[in-house]
Amino acid sequence: MRSQRRGVAIAEEATESDSLTGPVEDYLKAIYALGSSGAAVATNDIAGRLALAPASVSGMVRRLAEQGLLSYEPYRGVRLTDTGRRAALRTLRRHRVIESYLSTALHYPWDRVHKEAERLEHAASDELVDRMAAAIGEPATDPHGAPIPSRDGVMDEKELVSLDELAAGHGVRVVRVSDDNPEMLRYLGELSITPGAEVLIVSKAPFGGPISLRIGREVLSIGPELAAQVMVEPIVDADAPAH
Amino acid sequence: MRSQRRGVAIAEEATESDSLTGPVEDYLKAIYALGSSGAAVATNDIAGRLALAPASVSGMVRRLAEQGLLSYEPYRGVRLTDTGRRAALRTLRRHRVIESYLSTALHYPWDRVHKEAERLEHAASDELVDRMAAAIGEPATDPHGAPIPSRDGVMDEKELVSLDELAAGHGVRVVRVSDDNPEMLRYLGELSITPGAEVLIVSKAPFGGPISLRIGREVLSIGPELAAQVMVEPIVDADAPAH
DNA sequence: CGTAAAACTTAGGATATCCTTAACTATTGT
DNA sequence: ACAATAGTTAAGGATATCCTAAGTTTTACG
């Protein structure tokens, strides 16, 4: 596990404050997301997620390693360093606070917050993000149910199952949906499948067939592809917390 | 007045929607500001305002002319086209709405809104800016008193005098102060010299001496350099409009 | 365990933006 | 008319990011 440092004298520890470009922040976010399981992240997966050629990722990843944002052993994948993880979480916090703020304070429809936040997250100062968070009561999650990292980079991700993994009969609460497909979000919104909604799985047809759900009095059915995007947890009575 | 078009086939009329980079928007803002008098704007003045070498401006200005954002005759200065003016006013609107929003909705101190807006103005969508403006009641001016262009690019600039141009005895209302010097803004804030404040010019010492002002019950004095940054208008009784 | 497929890297370059210095040219003021 | 001022072109450099093509390493598995 020989370190990669070459002739370059200094490591240029990321200045922490800012100075990260938009694309770099995007790399870090992607690597964070892909590496949540703790394993090293594969070049190809990063390339896939960012829609870039694998060779581009190799190059960028080397630079990020030189900046101390991640550790990198050629052919073995990358892993964020503490500095890199902090930077990723800071960007994630920006993104999600901005999404929440747009939704709550400016009444943005939830299918459009992602795109706007994607641009603003690279331009907003920490102060702005903190003020936004304070103004809307320090929400714990964004409009799609994704947890918002705290100022000092702590985020608690729940273990969740997706709606298509459960058999008929389960009563669940929607916790989170994926945030980057506006059309899907609009559709889910129409169906009232939003974080917090309580859903009963009425039936589930085999071989990729439709899943029938009851939400309040409505009964509707969705395909497994859509169901896979809806993350849920078992319903626990709010007045009688587990244990 | 031979046109500059070279071998390049198309003129690529600015796509109107966006696609302007941050620096380009800054050029347009600068040219707009310098050209308010209607005259052509000198290369050197643009360079001075943006802290660039004059040669850099020559280069950029040629590109902007090719994009149809301004008209440019070498050695004769530049003038914004309608397209260019609209783009400049859009950026100005963004900047000032954002400043106002930060101040009103997020309680930013007025000396810090400029810097934040300077970054956000290049990233915010028109929709965001419009929502911000609506949320704070479509203000007519930003926190420093600068008028906010309307959605469709109309801005009414008043004729103003600066505080150091007036003789003792005048009663005036502060309309506008320059926005880019945080320390000055903090100081003006401490003195309650903010847009809307009513000020009586008590005395004015000659040869660049101090100007003595009464604001409410306070009497204070400031130097001419500072006074030159404070734009005022004569007080007209609000209940009895002029004429 | 050897080899083909998959994953990954390096080499070499293209592109896009914006900026600079140095040297030259045009305009202007006296 | 000519020096001072203003402005221009030429040539190139800094960043930052991406790509294709070709080669190398790892992995899967017969």
Task: Note the main attributes of this structure.
homodimer, about 240 residues, alpha+beta, 6-stranded antiparallel β-sheet, two-stranded antiparallel sheet, 8 helices, about 15% strand, globular, DNA-binding
Helical amount of chain A? 25-40%
> Biggest sheet of chain A, open or closed, and with what strands and sense?
6 strands, antiparallel
Morphology call of chain A: globular
Q: For the largest interface in this structure, which chains are involved and how many residues does each contribute?
A: A-B, 18 and 18 residues
Proportion of β residues of chain A? 15-25%
Topology order of chain A in helix (H) and strand (E) letters: HHHEEHHHEEHEEEHE
Q: State the assembly state of the protein chains.
A: homodimer
**Total DSSP E strands of chain A:** 8
The gyration radius over C-alpha positions of chain A equals 20 Å
Read across the widest sheet of chain A, the strand sequence of neighbours is: 3-8-4-5-6-7
Class by SSE composition of chain A = alpha+beta
| Overall mean confidence score, pLDDT of chain A | 90
Terminal Cα separation of chain A, in Å? 45 Å
Low-confidence parts of chain A, pLDDT < 50 over ≥5 residues? 1-16
Number of helices of chain A: 8
Task: Note down, in words, how this protein is organized.
The structure is a homodimer of 243-residue chains. With 243 residues, chain A is of the alpha+beta class. Chain A contains eight helices and eight strands. In chain A, the strands form two sheets. The first copy, chain A, has a six-stranded antiparallel beta sheet with strand order 3-8-4-5-6-7. In chain A, strand 1 and strand 2 form a beta hairpin. At the A-B interface, helix 4, helix 5 and helix 6 of A face helix 4, helix 5 and helix 6 of B. The structure holds a DNA duplex (30 and 30 nucleotides).
